[in-house]
Design a protein that fits this description.
Blueprint: E1 8-11, H1 16-21, H2 23-33, E2 37-40, H3 48-57, E3 61-67, H4 71-74, H5 76-85, E4 90-93, H6 103-120, E5 126-130, H7 134-137, E6 139-140, E7 143-144, H8 145-150, E8 159-161, H9 164-169, H10 174-179, E9 187-190, E10 192-193, H11 202-205, E11 206-207, H12 216-225, E12 230-233, H13 242-255
Parallel strand pairs: 1-2, 1-12, 2-3, 3-4, 4-5, 5-8, 9-12
Antiparallel strand pairs: 6-7, 10-11
Length: about 260
C-alpha cells in the first residue's frame, strides 16, 4: 500500500487556532510531518488568495473543502469562486446549522444540496455533507438525517463524509455504517474514541488516530476497497499539542501501509 501516504490528509479545523495565528507555519509544519494533502476549513481571517498561494508553495493537494451551511442556501456563486481559487471540486456542507435541525430545515438542506449538485455536477463538482453525531440520531421519514440527505433524489446523490468519532458517539457500529456509503464517500474523517466519558466530554473521549477504540485498520482496509480517496485526520482537541497529535495520527496510518 505504497500510495497510502498520498491519501492521508490533515483537516485544517484541527489547527484552527494555529492557522489563525500563522497559516504558513501550519502548512510548513504539516509538510515536515509528511502530509501531502489538506482539507480546507475556512480562511480564519486571512486573504483567500494568500492562503491559496501558500498551499501552492508547499505543494499540497486539496482533499475537499468544508463550506458553511448557509452559503449553500444563498452564495453558490461565491462557493464556486472559492473552489476555483483552490482548484477543488469536492465540497461539503460543514454541518447543518442549529436553526435547521428540524424537519423543515432538513428538507430545506436536502433541496439546497441537490440543487447545488444539479447546477454544478456538469462542471465536475461533488457536493457532500459532513456529519456530527446528531445526523445519525435524528430522524426524518423513518431515516436518520445522514441517510435522508444522501438518498438519491431525481437521480442526484449527495456524497457522505462519514466521521468515525461521531458515528461511534451516536452508537453506530462504524463498519456497518460505512457499508451504506460504499462508492459514495470519497473522503473519510478519522477521529478516534475512548469510552467511559460523558457524551459531552470530547476533550477526554477524543484521542489520537490509532490510539483509541475505533478499528482504524479495518476502516482503512474498507476504504481501499470502496473508493475512498483521502483519509482525513481531524483532531478537534489535543492534550499534547495539536501538531504532535496530528503527527501521531499520521505515523499510525503510515504504519498500516505494509499491513493492508
Amino acid at each position: 500500500m505504497a500510495e497510502l501516504r498520498k491519501k492521508i490528509a490533515a483537516q485544517l479545523y484541527s489547527l484552527r487556532q494555529e492557522f489563525e495565528a500563522n497559516p504558513e507555519n501550519v502548512l510548513r509544519t504539516l509538510k515536515e510531518i509528511g502530509f501531502e494533502a489538506i482539507q480546507v476549513d475556512g480562511m480564519r481571517g486571512h486573504d483567500p488568495f494568500e492562503i491559496a498561494r501558500l498551499i501552492k508553495k508547499y505543494d499540497f493537494k486539496i482533499a475537499g473543502m468544508h463550506i458553511k451551511h448557509d452559503r449553500f442556501m444563498d452564495d453558490l456563486e461565491g462557493i464556486v469562486q472559492e473552489c476555483d481559487l483552490f482548484d477543488c471540486r469536492t465540497i461539503y456542507d460543514k454541518y447543518i446549522d442549529d436553526e435547521d435541525q428540524n424537519e423543515a430545515g432538513y428538507r430545506k438542506t436536502k433541496k439546497a444540496l441537490v440543487q447545488a449538485a444539479q447546477t454544478l455536477s456538469g462542471q465536475g463538482y461533488r457536493i457532500g455533507l459532513h456529519n456530527p453525531e446528531y445526523d445519525y440520531l435524528n430522524q426524518i421519514d423513518g431515516r436518520n438525517v445522514m441517510a435522508f440527505i444522501t438518498d438519491l433524489e431525481d437521480n442526484i446523490g449527495i456524497y457522505a463524509e462519514p466521521d468515525t468519532y461521531w458515528m461511534t458517539l451516536a452508537g453506530e457500529d462504524v463498519m456497518s455504517a460505512l457499508e451504506k456509503y460504499s462508492g459514495r464517500a470519497p473522503i473519510l474523517h478519522l477521529k478516534d474514541y475512548l469510552s467511559g466519558f460523558d457524551k459531552e466530554d470530547m476533550v477526554n473521549s477524543l484521542t489520537e488516530v490509532g490510539y483509541g477504540e475505533v478499528d482504524m485498520k479495518a476502516v482503512v482496509a474498507w476504504g481501499e476497497k470502496n473508493g475512498v480517496e483521502y483519509y482525513c485526520i481531524e483532531q478537534d482537541y489535543s492534550k499534547i499539542g495539536m501538531f504532535e497529535s496530528m503527527k501521531k495520527g499520521f505515523d499510525y496510518l503510515i504504519s498500516l501501509e505494509s499491513e493492508i
